Amino acid sequence: MTEKTPLLTVTDLSVVFPSSKGDVCAVNRVSFAMGREKIGIVGESGSGKSVTGRAVLRLLPPYARVRASEVTFKGRNLLTYSEKQMRKIRGMEISMVMQDPKYSLNPVRTVGEQIREAYTIHHKAGKKQARQKTLDMLKAVRIRNPEQVYGLYPHEVSGGMGQRIMIAMMLIPEPSLLIADEPTSALDVTVQLQVLAILDDLVSERGMGLIFISHDLALVSSFCDRVIIMYGGQIMEVVDAGDLHKSEHPYTKGLLSCLPKIDGTQDHLPTLVRDDAWLKPVSERANGAAAS
Amino acid sequence: MIIVEHLNLFFGHGQTRNHAVKDVGFIVEKGDSFGLVGESGSGKSTVLNCISGLLTHWTGRMEIDGVGLTHKRNMAFCRKVQMVFQDPYGSLHPRHTIDRTLKEPVKIHRLGDANRRVARVLDEVGLGAKFRFRFPHQLSGGQRQRVAVARALILDPEIILFDEPTSALDVSIQAELLNLLQDIRREKKLTYILVSHDLAVVSHMCNTLMVMNRGKTVETITRDQLKNGAIQEKYTKQLLVAGKGYDRTAIDQFQDFR
Fold first, then answer.
1. Would you say residue B52 lies in a domain?
2. For residue A91, what are the CA distances in angstroms to A103, A178, A179, B66?
3. pTM score over 0.95
4. Does the residue B258 lie in any domain?
5. Nearest to A196 among B227, B238, B246 (CB)
6. How many CA atoms lie within 13 A of A127 on its CB side?
7. What interface predicted TM-score (ipTM) does this complex get?
8. Closest residue to B182, CB basis, from A44, A190, A266
9. Is residue A247 in a domain?
10. Average pLDDT by stretches of 10, chain B with 258 residues
11. Which chain B residues have any C-beta within 8 angstroms of a chain A C-beta?
């Protein structure tokens, strides 16, 4: 599963949002390469983890200035792609699961129709065949009565089921990379793990790559193969999930130690002391290029 | 001492009637910290809302320091029991300064000496005078939650009810707020009831905790029992396993508890 043929390579990705108080550099020279593996991006709010995921798919608002020296997906340079070409990449090759199914689904159409649409946009298929494919997919995300769920509207399904529907919709065009942006943060712990198990099984079965964006370091370290830790728009370190507890970086150590533990004491939790020295200065290149 | 006995509550009517809290009871000693844990829909916040008087159509018996609670609460009750809510963005008035937000309870209860009280509570929650005349949008999530704690503290209550106080915060900010809450409780000898979905947070803050599922009490356990794993109920065990992170084999054994 973890053969290292780079599926996605990102080099020197920077995202700058202009604002009235000066430019905000949300992502600063982020580089990583991934194969068909599960990679986690962890950070606190404002660390640039979601923006990184969206920048790869070019889903940022038009005023965001995205600069990178390389975004290569399966040997194809995505930076040169037009918006029309990107539309073929989105869904078909790389797809994205968002945090809240309530806001990501169309409230006035049944979930079955919406999943079917995701399939028919990318594949030539008759109505009957597409419907059958949708039902199979619903079964694959372990929905017990797919026929019934097919006709339900988004407000009639629970959070956990909604997220499974989102996963079904994103996986039905059979992409090779899935970006999951906090896919389970709104769910209860047990449901969260069940949804992750489905995601894990499907990703392994199909030999896909997964970028899992989350704020939950403990969860990511137990779920992913490798973890990218971000702070202030920059990558602090990339560690193998198993070695996370051996990490020497003060930020990673700080994040791990400030979690309350069931077998811990009731004394003060260690708090995180932030250090500006962790951040390299916003590069001239990113700024200069953005200004042009 | 807080005593809750046979608390029942229904939402809705007829066919869609939902028995949200089913015969729940517990006792919280004075100066203790009590936790309510459960998944969404377990009724944990509803119990808290019944105690605070935000919900008035409950049946059963509740008592605080020997005085039975009626459905309508008086001013003395509000001075004694205060509440901190989950969402630091939604619980402060967006167009009132922190100063005005904090002075409002003082004015309602006619305590006087508002300026000194505001300065004191801001100090107690670690914010200091420079935040006093800011608006909520000028503060971060953690700072807003501190303001919400300050607003509860300004009336010198004996009991504070917390409804998921840290679930909207980053883990590092959560640690700072939990430390603050521990310090305040020890210093002022307050009684806490804390609602959370996070078993680790509750076990860090509370000595006794009650696990709820679908409106029912699953079990009431002490912190030591949780630590040693001396748990009777399967539901609590499952919750404990789920809190430990992703484990593919354990997930297949998860059950749906009805």
1. yes
2. 18, 9, 10, 63
3. no
4. no
5. B246
6. 1
7. 0.83
8. A266
9. no
10. 94 88 94 92 92 94 93 92 90 94 94 93 92 93 94 95 91 92 94 93 93 93 89 90 86 82
11. 39-40, 141, 170-172, 174-176, 178-179, 182, 197-201, 203-205, 223, 226-227, 238-240, 242-248, 251-252, 254
